[in-house]
Amino acid sequence: MTSATVVQGRSFARSRGALVPARLLGGPSRSDAETWVEHNSRLGGAISSARGRHHPAQLIAMIRRAGLTGRGGAGFPAADKLAAVRGQPRRPVVVGNGSETEPASAKDDLLLRLRPHLVLDGLELVAATLKAERIFVVVPSALAARSVLRALRERESESSRGPAVEVALGPTNFVGGEETALVRWLEGLAALPRFQPPRGFERGWRGKPTLVQNVETLANLGLIARFGPEWFRQQGTPEEPGTCLVTLSGAFSHPGVYEVSIGMPLSELVVAAGADPSAAALLAGGYFGSWLQPAQFPAAKVSRAGLRELGASPGAGVFHLLAPGNCVVRESQRLVRWLAGESAGQCGPCAQGLPAMAETLERLSDPLQATEQGVRLIARWCAQVENRGACRHPDGVVNLIRSTLSDFGAEVELHIRGRCSGTVSTPLPLPTDWERVV
Amino acid sequence: MSARYLRVDPTLCVGHGLCAELFPERVRLDDWGFPIIAPDELPSSLQRAARRAQTSCPALALKLDRTPPRRPIDPGLPRRGIRTAQ
Description:
Chain A contains 16 helices and twelve strands. By secondary structure, chain A is α/β, with parallel strands linked by helices.
């Protein structure tokens, strides 16, 4: 990531603005946060005036009409999650999830640094509507923490009778951003996922019903409360309305975070970011994602439906373009090795299977050691490991391996014949050891 | 009798393997000795055996209740086979 800077152990990309009328990245084009005064004058008043109009059932119905889905990667309907928490008999805990433990993603960090009030609008609205007992916002970096804390001070005069928003620096392990792991982290425990059910909305933080919602989702939620579902649907597709933030890294002349209308053609996005026209492949959906070949770009759209046909998913909007001359098998192998080390180690199939698959893939990535038997072994283990963890970590790794070996099967065959098309190696960004100490 | 399913809490399971011994109709072991349990509903003819497996688990990792096991992620996604060269 050429334009990325490392500050306080977290790399973040710069804002590249919006390829649509900006919603999340609109406003001043400075590199620091929009102030409370600027925010309110731009959006026509404080969220509290919009908030008063909404009864819980009304808010949920409005979010359902808007069709807002979670922006953390899984794409779960936001209204269903709200309704599930509201259906619990006890007062809930609300968590804004900006932990962003995916190394190639920078959008939550950017949003919290530049537009903290958008996130806090949505968070306070949801917390007030659900009569939350505690409110947390989890941030990925010290800079984001500073931005959110400053924003909270600016809002102090306006804040309602509800509990104060508590800011927590998030975990750095890859699985730590998963809901149940994050809840444990906020309880002061190691950020490890737990077996479900009970689901987090039933028993979360200290056993209370807990709503965990990605910070970009919350920002959209606040905007929907202000401007309504019809406004929200002016962008995106009927099935997947709205805009989303995407993080582009790798072989782009302008990598960084973009706001796009969901469903925009992938080829337009990569051209706008200055993609290297002879790039080797695009990893869509982050490190749990799938590889796309450049020939597939024209058919792809930046949406779940528009990538599903190609066997991929946008995940949390993470796209990495692998520079020309790289061998996809070799660079995937690096990721799988790292992801195997990121297993929480709680579930046997993940703790045992991932290192075994990483080792076998390592041999497949080396033309001197690649064998047909290695491919069969990995296929066997993918089938055995899938869907057998408490969280989806093993499933994500299986997805990446399957994509590597099927979409780039020709390269694997080349390795088995003792050759490799790779001439250079540009590893995908991974946190270094010192970064993980934070 | 209402629907019953056998599930394993993978965070508790340490791979003793008793379940596969006691209930081979629905449980087999993976390459590392951890149980792979068929996700289907248990017919009443198998519920005794399932109960025996559950109560015999030294790690208390087996659940026998009305909750169906979690499904694989996004079943709508095309399941690509891994290409093996000939």
